[in-house]
Design a protein that fits this description.
- There is one protein chain.
- The protein has 504 residues and is an alpha/beta fold.
- It folds into 3 domains: 4-110, Nucleotidyltransferase, domain 5, CATH 3.30.420; 114-294, Exopolyphosphatase. Domain 2 (Nucleotidyltransferase, domain 5, 2-Layer Sandwich); 315-503, Hypothetical protein af1432, CATH 1.10.3210.
- The protein has 22 helices and 14 strands.
- Strand 1 (4-12) and strand 2 (16-25) form a beta hairpin.
């Protein structure tokens, strides 16, 4: 029997308090189902006097009491609360944590620098398919740099440079101090051996508010057709364009830029200055932005420690299976469709001539070909497109996600919208169009071969004979229905592959 349960995580950060409600599904999956967030300035309290004032503590308690009430109303008893290491600097943090526990029942875990770095990195790397490279996080008070290989940390360093101190110097008009701050940052970057003695093909990964805001401006500047934040790739040229635009504006105009909140505009400018030093020193040609960060990494370790004791090597597969768990679709069903689809893909390589880089879109399409049925059965092929694009499949590029979405719509030739395809011409190519046509029909055929979702077809082999492809099935029991359904794909298959199929 499937066991569903709700859990809650509360994050006490420098500028806000956030409550995240999660639904976990055995054996090892979870999804965020709701969030609550309240702005409250805490870091400034600590930086000024290493003390959180009683009036601010009163506001904190008011928010946490409301979160306690939400959790109680939802019947949630499994609640954890954490705060970044920065809070350890507050002289009265112990009395605050005791008051929170005695009043609300929340025990706070103040992260150690090592825990914070691990969570930041894990949150970022578990969203991407990068296996080797350098991770950069520029926060309000510190900068984390990590060298990783096989998705595990090799070397790391924490530098005491962040957006808030620099922004404050610039706001107060102390140009000399601000320039020295930037010079010191550049000098320390040059002294880090593990990033300066790197492979020239090194890939770069970033996360955090600074880079997410940068991504918004970069997509707007390049008229990027997708609104997706995760795994968005910023070229150095685009970064330079945004940097030059923002640093040449006065602060009031920066505040009006779409994607930049009024309260963070000064820190955004300061962050770009720090990022620019890093990018130039490392001769970075492009970098990927991860949508997830500290809270997401911490959630991984907290919710499923048996799964996330370290960054997942197969986050892509885990993510697909997690989505199936969310939709209450047995993974065995979609895994069988993928098994049949990849079998056909490999055996017909001499005909379709598609390279291996199309296997990820094929797998996504196999797992999610019928996800549109969760909205409306009659239009499920069409409905699948936005679901796939917005389903937060991790470990995959935005282009592969887009190709998978189009491949699913191509299951029905008459429903394929070429005008819609043209909208994404800055991302996809003519070769991609040919590929998704072929992938779409392969998925349609594979789904037909498992139309009863009983896996009666164990395996198949393909023989190419002139204008025909003979598909010989290996069955466990009667598969006449599946074979009949597969033969209905013949007309569509012929249009794309210029060959008939015969399934026996």
């Amino acid at each position: 029997m499937e066991n569903n349960s709700k859990k809650a995580i509360i994050e006490l950060s420098e500028n806000k308090i956030t409550l995240v409600i999660l639904e976990t599904k055995e054996p090892c999956f979870y999804n965020v189902i709701d969030t609550y967030s309240d702005n409250i300035v805490l870091a400034q309290e600590i930086i000024n006097e290493n003390l959180i004032r009683p009036v601010v503590i009163k506001d904190v308690m008011k928010i946490l009491k409301s979160y306690r009430k939400i959790c109680d109303n939802l019947g949630i008893v499994n609640i954890t609360m954490f705060a970044p290491n920065y809070f350890s600097k507050a002289r009265n943090i112990k009395s605050l944590t005791e008051e929170i526990y005695n009043t609300c029942g929340f025990a706070i875990n103040i992260l150690s620098p090592e825990e914070q770095l691990k969570s930041l990195f894990c949150g970022a790397v578990n969203c991407t398919d990068l296996t080797k490279g350098v991770f950069l996080h520029i926060g309000e008070y510190e900068t984390y740099i990590v060298q990783f290989n096989r998705r595990n940390i090799l070397n790391s360093i924490l530098l005491p440079f962040g957006t808030y101190p620099l922004a404050k110097m610039q706001e107060e008009g102390d140009k000399n101090e601000a320039n020295k701050y930037l010079e010191d940052f550049a000098a320390q970057i040059k002294e880090i051996p593990f990033i300066n003695d790197k492979d020239p093909e090194t890939q770069y990964l970033t996360n955090g508010a600074l880079f997410l805001n940068l991504g918004v401006l970069a997509r707007k500047a390049t008229r990027y057709p997708l609104e997706l934040a995760n795994n968005y790739v910023v070229t150095k040229e685009t970064f330079d364009n945004v940097y030059n635009l923002v640093t040449n504006l006065d602060l009031d105009k920066t505040k009006k830029l779409k994607g930049i909140s009024e309260g963070s505009a000064d820190k955004f400018v300061a962050g770009l200055q720090l990022a620019n030093i890093f990018m130039n020193s490392q001769e970075v040609s492009q970098f990927s932005i991860s949508e997830e960060g500290l809270r997401d990494g911490y959630m991984n370790f907290y919710i499923m420690p048996e799964v996330f004791d370290r960054p997942l090597s197969e986050m892509f597969v885990y993510s697909l299976e997690n989505i199936n768990a969310f939709f209450k679709v047995p993974n065995s069903n979609n895994e069988k469709v993928y098994e049949l689809a990849i079998n056909v893909f490999k055996q017909l390589k001499v005909i379709h001539k598609l390279p291996r880089n199309y296997i990820k879109p094929l797998r996504i399409a196999a797992y999610m070909y019928d996800c549109g049925k969760r909205i409306c059965y009659n239009n499920y092929v069409k409905n699948s497109f936005p679901i796939i694009l917005n389903s937060k499949i991790k470990g995959v590029s935005q282009k592969d996600l887009l190709l998978a979405a189009f491949a699913c719509t191509f299951q029905e030739l008459d429903n394929f919208n070429l005008t819609e395809w043209v909208k994404y011409s800055s991302i996809v190519t003519e070769d991609d169009l040919d590929a998704i046509k072929k992938i779409g029909i392969i998925i349609k055929l594979a789904a037909a071969l498992d139309s009863t979702k009983s896996s009666v077809i164990q395996d198949l082999s393909c023989d190419i004979l002139g204008d025909s492809i003979i598909m010989k099935t290996i069955v466990e029991k009667d598969a006449s229905f599946e074979i009949a359904e597969a033969m209905k794909v013949n007309s569509s298959f012929k249009k794309v592959f210029v060959k008939f199929i015969e399934v026996i």
